[in-house]
Amino acid sequence: MDQRLIEMLVCPLCKGPLTLLRGAEADLPALACRADRLAFPIRDGIPLMLENEARPWDPEAVSAPLPLAP
């Protein structure tokens, strides 16, 4: 997605900023709202900004370091 478009989009629930998730952070590319802890999927380059399309997202789980092996 175009970075300028991401900067213009806001969460449809709280109107807060969104973060682009891709790769290891998400199964599909998604736009995530840290305040609502929801990820809105991006399908075919189109963000689905509907509450019923969102899935739970835990920002702490993504940014937490991996445990060290004993």
Q: If you had to describe this structure to a student in words, what would you say it looks like?
A:
This protein has helices at residues 3-8, 59-63; strands at 19-21, 30-33, 38-43, 46-47, 55-56. With 70 residues, it is of the alpha+beta class. Residues 64-70 have low confidence and may be disordered. The longest helix is centred in the first third of the chain and has 6 residues, at 3-8. It has two helices and five strands, in the order αβββββα. Strands 1, 2, 3, 4 and 5 form a five-stranded antiparallel beta sheet that branches.
Determine the structural class based on helices, strands and strand pairing: alpha+beta
Distance between the termini: 40 Å
Number of DSSP strand runs = 5
Q: Percent range for helical residues? A: 10-25%
* Poorly predicted tracts of residues: 64-70
Note the run of SSEs as H and E: HEEEEEH
Characterize the main sheet.
Answer: 5 strands, antiparallel
Quaternary status: single chain
Approximate shape = globular
Report Rg: 13 Å
| Helical segment count | 2
If you average the pLDDT, what whole number results?
82
- Beta-strand residue percentage: 15-25%
Quick structural overview:
This protein has helices spanning 3-8, 59-63; strands at residues 19-21, 30-33, 38-43, 46-47, 55-56. The chain is of the alpha+beta class and 70 residues long.
